[in-house]
Design a protein that fits this description.
heterodimer, A: alpha+beta, Nonspecific Lipid-transfer Protein, Chain A, 8 helices, 30% helix, 19% strand, globular, B: alpha/beta, Rossmann fold, eight-stranded mixed beta sheet, 10 helices, 35% helix, 18% strand
């Protein structure tokens, strides 16, 4: 089964001391939701992997990217279009192909059921200079629809992608 | 199942542009005052299918849309395979005036969106006598690049995929799914480097900030309509243009994005029809 080999792809990106922060790991329940979207971000794996079309569009994509929500970084590991792990920082030496960094309040507007103008798309955030996209952006741009739809998965159910 | 035909007819026009032979696809519907339609960067004349299929427009207007060279069903000129396509203000202006003359249009109403809205401002300034009225959709005087345009044309990024994905967020949130994805499909069908070549005009060569205030609406009425959700040409940018041009009329269209005539034709027509009616009375 493919998923069984997935952690070997980029396991070095996640220092062992941080691994108990993985999705579904041993994090205390009262910690969830403290910073707004935290518990929501942890649902990304099931939201993405449950969407057959989205996984198909990402089938040639294997990478790890970093999503920074205010002060909190998340490493999101993808294997052939499926989210393998969502890991909460802080990290000592995170490795990722690229990073998307924006203040928490910007992501919260982006993840509204109906985002306001200027907050409805990652490129809108980039244009307003509130989202920084850094690293090897060929990975991001070659799968731009995939990444936009992955990030939109964190909107409330029923919201437009 | 019985087939249904739309009232749109298409033809191929042969004419020289910039000293080179071109084969340009032109489609039209309706009769009356000519309404010449300019599509957005990286797309084609299908964006105006909603206007051409609406009897409220076609009863009094001959609606005409051409695919710019390199776009849709218009070919690039012979020799294209060794060139990098880059649209300039001068070429864009010439193309519109030449095609309008070749079609023998008598002072058409001009409607253009995005790059078409930008060149509409150029034409309002430089050739107002050629038009009955000018309607600029998503028309701003300038847009700064906000992503690396090179991603639109490189072999390791699929051009169709990236062009569709780049503009997907510019569609307003209320657009019907069928029209939203039709609009994006046109982008996905663009030729290699064509969207990028159009953006040379939009983001570099076509900057008209220092001259836009010189537009004289007494010579040609100017209407500006922009969608609320357009972050490429924002409502603020359109309002700034309107503020600097005395006599211009501006409408910000709630819920609409960067492709109003294509992403949600019915919602857009609610804004356009009163404008056409007003022009018809002048």
């Amino acid at each position: 089964m493919r998923l069984a080999v997935a952690p070997a792809i980029d396991a070095g990106a996640i220092p062992p001391i941080m691994r108990n922060n993985r999705f579904g790991g041993a994090k205390p329940a009262d910690e969830k939701g403290r910073d707004g979207g935290e518990s929501m971000i942890e649902t990304l794996r099931e939201r993405v992997n449950g969407d057959v079309g989205l996984v198909r569009r990402g089938r040639y994509l294997t990478t790890t990217f970093l999503l920074e929500v205010g002060q909190i970084p998340w490493l999101i590991q993808i294997f052939e279009g499926r989210i393998v792990s969502v890991t909460r920082g802080p990290f000592v030496m995170p490795s990722s192909s690229f990073a998307l960094r924006a203040p928490e309040e910007e992501w919260q507007k982006f993840w509204c059921v109906r985002p306001p103008p200027g907050s409805n798309d990652v490129l809108a955030l980039i244009k307003r200079r509130v989202l920084k996209a850094e690293g090897d952006l060929q990975v991001f741009m070659s799968h731009l629809r995939y990444f936009k739809e992955v990030l939109a998965k964190l909107r409330a159910p029923g919201a437009a992608a | 199942m019985k087939a249904r035909f739309e009232p749109i007819t298409g033809r191929y026009m042969h004419l020289d542009l910039f000293g080179r032979p071109h084969r340009v696809y032109v489609e039209e519907a309706g009769e009356g005052t000519p309404l010449l339609c300019l599509h957005t960067a990286g797309s084609d004349g299908r964006q105006y299918r909603g206007l051409m299929n609406d009897p409220r427009v076609t009863a009094k207007h001959r609606v005409i849309a051409f695919d710019m060279p390199w776009h849709g069903k218009s070919s690039p000129p012979p020799g294209w395979h060794d060139e990098e396509y880059q649209l300039t203000s001068a070429q864009y202006t010439t193309m519109i005036l030449e095609i309008s003359a070749a079609l023998e249009l008598d002072r058409p109403i001009l409607i253009g969106c995005s790059i078409g809205g930008r060149i509409a401002l150029h034409l309002a300034l430089e050739h107002p006598e050629r038009f009955r009225a000018i309607i600029g959709l998503q028309a701003g005087a300038h847009v700064d690049p906000y992503y690396d345009l090179n991603f639109l044309h490189r072999a390791d990024v699929h051009g169709g995929e990236v062009c569709g994905a780049i503009v997907s967020g510019l569609v307003g949130p209320d657009a019907p799914d069928s029209e939203r994805w039709e609009t994006l499909w046109h982008y996905m069908q663009g030729g290699p480097g064509v969207f990028k070549g159009d953006l040379y005009f939009y983001k570099l060569d076509g900057d008209i900030r220092d001259r836009v205030a010189q537009i004289d609406t007494r010579r040609c009425p100017l209407f500006l309509l922009s969608g609320e959700y357009d972050y490429s040409c924002t409502p603020e940018e359109t309002l700034a243009v309107a503020k600097s041009i005395g006599g211009s009329e501006v409408t910000i269209m709630k819920g609409l994005g960067h492709f109003p005539m294509s992403e949600d034709p019915q919602a857009f027509l609610a804004h356009l029809l009163p404008v056409l009616e007003k022009i018809g009375k002048t």
